[in-house]
């Protein structure tokens, strides 16, 4: 618990520290400085060149802190007098609300993507902002707190959702049957495929109660993103060659990646990307089990069911009609057999990863596309947490089978 409280304390002070983007909270009413993604390890501002702003940061911090608040309340932790916040209400008012204000003011402003490479509007950034606002509104609803700011958040959630779903903005594009990660560079520099699409969907739909929100795990565009990433990376990375089309492989960030962990060269598979595929499929299973939901498979191979026809059902007959579906009734033999097949596919990504982990269990950022050995940032926290997320979710669904 002490580590979590220290994280909250650092967050409080970083919000109030001046940086290259502007003055910190307390010096100005502007929230623009909250978009700076990089700090020195002594919590001072990093003033060298970097890809800034990065507008996903306040949203991700909000999501993390809401989980910490829930843990504090459930455990009855006494915050004592050591920190600048004395209660859960202080944490929300003095940290979370500023990050939410940043989202309200800047969600439609260009910024760098989570890979800190491309400036623009990004599916990942927008969806985690949507998630942060939605989870905060749920918190307000549970606590009974009402204020004009709540209405601003409701409108922002609506605006972000509408923006993402509007084909004019390019995330949903009739040319593709998958999500376009950054529309501004699709067709010219990249295909639009990006593992961050799955990361964002997993963050938004981390609990069964979020199933009513857009871009759920069973959305054909989400599942087809996974299918197309597998299709491209099966040939891009030599360590994947020879793998069966319906077996998990090593995945990277996006097919055109050239960052090798040290500089520009050949992009490689990433631990977090490979684990994200497993997590997505485990979430798909959990959703159908927890909600006792029938499995609905679209029957149009051209637009909707590339995932189902090529990864799950090897002999699925397609009808070329967007309004035709195969429905597998909950808990029927066909339903259970299909979920078992999805479980096998999810597991196979982790099996692939296991073959490239050293004897000491070290997880770096990447593993070499030719040799399979770990490279890039060593002992990357994101790699370990990605595996842990997948493992915990797998343990949860195994208890339900």
SSE order, one letter for each helix or strand: HHHEEHHHHHEHEHEEH
Helical element count? 11
The gyration radius over C-alpha positions equals: 21 Å
Note poorly predicted spans: none
Largest sheet: 2 strands, antiparallel
Averaged pLDDT: 93
CATH topology of the largest domain: Glycosyltransferase
CATH top-level class of the largest domain? Mainly Alpha
- CA distance, first residue to last residue: 33 Å
- Number of domains in the coordinates? 2
Count all strands and give the number: 6
Percent strand: under 5%
Protein name: glucan 1,4-alpha-glucosidase
Family: Belongs to the glycosyl hydrolase 15 family.
Keywords: Carbohydrate metabolism, Glycosidase, Hydrolase, Polysaccharide degradation
GO molecular function: glucan 1,4-alpha-glucosidase activity
């Amino acid at each position: 618990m002490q580590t979590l409280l220290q994280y909250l304390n650092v967050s409080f002070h970083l919000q109030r520290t001046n940086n290259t983007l502007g003055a910190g909270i307390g010096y100005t009413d502007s929230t623009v400085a909250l978009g700076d993604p990089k700090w020195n390890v002594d919590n001072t501002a990093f003033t060298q060149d970097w890809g800034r702003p990065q507008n996903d940061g306040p949203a991700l911090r909000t999501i993390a802190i809401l989980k910490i608040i829930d843990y504090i309340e459930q455990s009855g932790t006494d915050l004592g007098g050591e920190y600048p916040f004395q209660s859960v209400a202080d944490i929300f008012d003095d940290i979370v609300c500023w990050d939410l204000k940043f989202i309200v003011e800047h969600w439609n402003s260009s910024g760098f993507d989570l890979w800190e490479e491309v400036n623009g509007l990004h599916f990942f950034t927008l969806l985690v902002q949507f998630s942060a606002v939605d989870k905060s509104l749920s918190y307000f609803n549970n606590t009974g707190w009402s204020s004009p700011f709540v209405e601003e958040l409701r409108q922002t959630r609506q605006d972000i959702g509408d923006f993402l779903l509007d084909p004019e903005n390019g995330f949903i594009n009739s040319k593709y049957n998958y999500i376009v990660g950054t529309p501004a560079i699709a067709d010219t520099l990249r295909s639009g495929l990006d593992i961050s699409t799955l990361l964002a969907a997993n963050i938004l739909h981390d609990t069964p109660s979020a199933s009513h929100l857009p871009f759920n795990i069973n959305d054909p565009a989400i599942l087809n993103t996974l299918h197309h990433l597998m299709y491209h990376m099966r040939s891009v990375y030599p360590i994947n060659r020879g793998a069966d089309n319906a077996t998990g492989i090593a995945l990277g960030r996006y097919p055109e990646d050239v960052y090798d962990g040290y500089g520009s060269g050949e992009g490689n598979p990433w631990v977090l990307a490979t684990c994200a595929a497993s997590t997505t499929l485990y979430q798909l299973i959990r959703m159908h089990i927890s909600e006792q939901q029938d499995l609905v498979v679209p029957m149009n191979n051209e637009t909707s069911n590339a995932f189902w026809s090529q990864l799950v059902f090897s002999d699925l007959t397609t009808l070329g009609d967007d309004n035709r579906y195969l429905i597998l009734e909950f808990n029927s033999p066909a339903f259970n057999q299909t979920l078992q097949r999805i479980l096998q596919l999810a597991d196979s990504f982790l099996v692939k990863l296991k073959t490239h982990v050293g004897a000491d269990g070290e997880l770096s950022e990447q593993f070499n596309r030719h040799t399979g050995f770990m490279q890039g940032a060593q002992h990357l926290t994101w790699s370990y947490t990605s595996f842990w997320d997948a493992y915990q979710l797998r343990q949860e669904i195994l208890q339900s089978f």
